[in-house]
Amino acid sequence: MTEVPPPIALPGSVNLIAACDENRLIGNKGRLPWRIREDWLWFLANTTGGACVIGRLSFEAMLRGSSVNEKRRFFVVSKNSGLSGSFSEVFPDYPAALAAAKASGRPVWICGGERIYAESLASCDRLYLTRVHARFEGDAWLPDWSAQFPGKPLWKRDGADGRCSYSFEVYERR
Ligand SMILES: NC(=O)c1ccc[n+]([C@@H]2O[C@H](COP(=O)([O-])OP(=O)(O)OC[C@H]3O[C@@H](n4cnc5c(N)ncnc54)[C@H](OP(=O)(O)O)[C@@H]3O)[C@@H](O)[C@H]2O)c1
């Protein structure tokens, strides 16, 4: 049977993308609590061509990898304007970053961390969530989305690696 692909994010739409465990944990000491390669590929595939709104610490983590390139633009929330570059612009607060990301005409992806997720939830049209079916130690969480995105996901695919199982889920605001 042919697998149905996840719904495509439309230009100008605001989409939160995050991975969380069973307690909505997203981070530990500045890093992800887990290493799930398929989730990283999911993030890269969805955000290609998009406008990524992201906090400074999460952006600095991206800079240490290879995802800051021509495939996506970053709208970084920080007081440190030195993070501007060929593929990134810096904004002093979330509303300014969101406005610029929307004006780019690309699908907007809210990429964390904790404060950005909390501030953005009310402005999101969809959630692209990786639900990790385990409990980890950590210090950063996703806000409770259940009141704003109740019920079953619009789309879901289960996955697993040698260490844990997870589900990719897309929720739409009703
Ligand atoms: N599981 C996931 O999907 C996921 C995704 C992203 C991040 N994470 C995890 O989350 C953790 C990082 O999150 P975090 O919340 O600590 O850091 P963060 O949001 O990435 O960065 C915090 C910094 O961003 C700026 N900032 C963030 N929100 C702001 C706001 N609303 N207004 C003004 N400035 C704002 C400030 O920068 P300045 O100090 O420069 O002004 C602040 O110090 C890490 O553990 C990371 O691995 C997980």
Instruction: Give the N-terminus to C-terminus distance in angstroms.
Output: 29 Å
User: Helix amount, in percent?
Assistant: 10-25%
| Strand-pairing-aware structural class | alpha/beta
In the CATH hierarchy, what is the class?
Alpha Beta
Radius of gyration (Å): 15 Å
Ions, cofactors and other bound molecules: NADP nicotinamide-adenine-dinucleotide phosphate
Major sheet strand order: 5-4-3-6-1-7-10-9
User: CATH superfamily, please?
Assistant: Dihydrofolate Reductase, subunit A
Uncertain residue segments: none
Percentage of residues in DSSP E strands: 25-35%
Largest sheet: 8 strands, mixed
Shape: globular
Count the domains.
1
What is the name of the CATH architecture? 3-Layer(aba) Sandwich
How large is the count of helical segments?
4
Helix-strand string? EEHEHEEHEHEEEE
CATH fold-level assignment: Dihydrofolate Reductase, subunit A
User: Would you count the extended β strands for me?
Assistant: 10
Average of the residue pLDDT scores: 96
